[in-house]
Amino acid sequence: MSSAASPINVFVASTPLQLISCSEARYHYGCSAETTLLVIARPDNRETEGQMAFLADALGWQDIETIYLKKSSFYLRLGAVAKGLSRRKIERLFIGNKSSWIHEVFYRGFDSEQLIFVDDGLATVTYYHAIHDEGIASRISPAKKRLLRTMGIRIHRVVPDVIAFFTFFPLPSSGLFRCRFTISRSFVEPLKHQPVTAARRPWWGSLASLLVVRIGLRN
C-alpha cells in the first residue's frame, strides 16, 4: 500500500468485464501493486459480487489495496472512502462504466492527472456515439448532489480536455474528437488452479490487441 503522499492509480469497476479490462489496463500502464487501489463499486447483486471477488483473486489483485462498496452498504461507506481519497494524489483514474452516476462520482468528484475509460463491451461504443449528441452529460441528479454533499463529496470537476479510452474497438476520429490509436498486446492469463464446477465456472480472459484511444475534446 502506498503512503498518502505517493501518487496512486485508482481503478473503479462494477462488473466482471470491467474488472477484466482494468486488469488489462493495469498491465499496459505498468501500475505496481504499491501504487494501485481497486474500488469494486456497487455490483448489481450478490451473484455479481461473488463473480467479482472470484475474478479479483484469479486476476492477481490479491495484494492490491481493495475497497468493496457493496449495494447493501454503499451509502454508509461512500463518505469514508471519499474522505480517504481526498487526502491522496491520484495519478491515473480508470473508470469502468462511463454512463453510471456511481462511477461519475469518482471522475467528477476527485482530481486526477489522467482520466482513462476502460472497455465495457458494446456500452463503450454506445457511450462514444452518445457524446456526439449530448457531450459528456452528467447522470448525477440535483437530489443526489445534495446527498453527496452531506457525505463531504463535492461534484466539482470538469472533465479534462484529453481523455483516454482503453478499448479494443477502433473508434474513429470525428469533428468532435482527435483520436490517436496505440496498439498494445497484453493478455489476462487464463485462470489457473481454479476448480471447475457447475456452481463456479471459471472465467477465461484474453483480451488481445487492445487499442488505447486517446480522445482530445476540441473546443
Offer a few descriptive terms:
single chain, about 220 residues, alpha/beta, eight-stranded mixed β-sheet, 6 helices, about 30% helix, globular
Shape: globular
Strand content: 15-25%
Helix share, percent: 25-40%
Poorly predicted spans: 178-193, 195-219
The description of the largest β-sheet is:
8 strands, mixed
Number of strands: 8
Radius of gyration: 17 Å
What is the averaged pLDDT score? 77
Walk across the major sheet and give the strand order. Answer: 3-2-1-4-5-6-8-7
Query: What is the chain-wise order of helices and strands?
Result: EHEHEHEHEHHEEE
N/C terminus separation: 39 Å
What is the SS-derived class? alpha/beta
The number of helical segments is 6
What does this structure look like?
- The chain is α/β, with parallel strands linked by helices and 219 residues long.
- Helix content is 32%, strand content 24%.
- It is built from six helices and eight strands.
- The protein has helices at 16-29, 46-58, 74-86, 101-109, 122-134, 142-150, and strands at 8-13, 36-41, 65-69, 90-95, 112-118, 162-167, 177-184, 210-217.
- Strands 3-2-1-4-5-6-8-7 form an eight-stranded mixed sheet.
- The radius of gyration is 17 Å and the shape is globular.
- The relative contact order is 0.17.
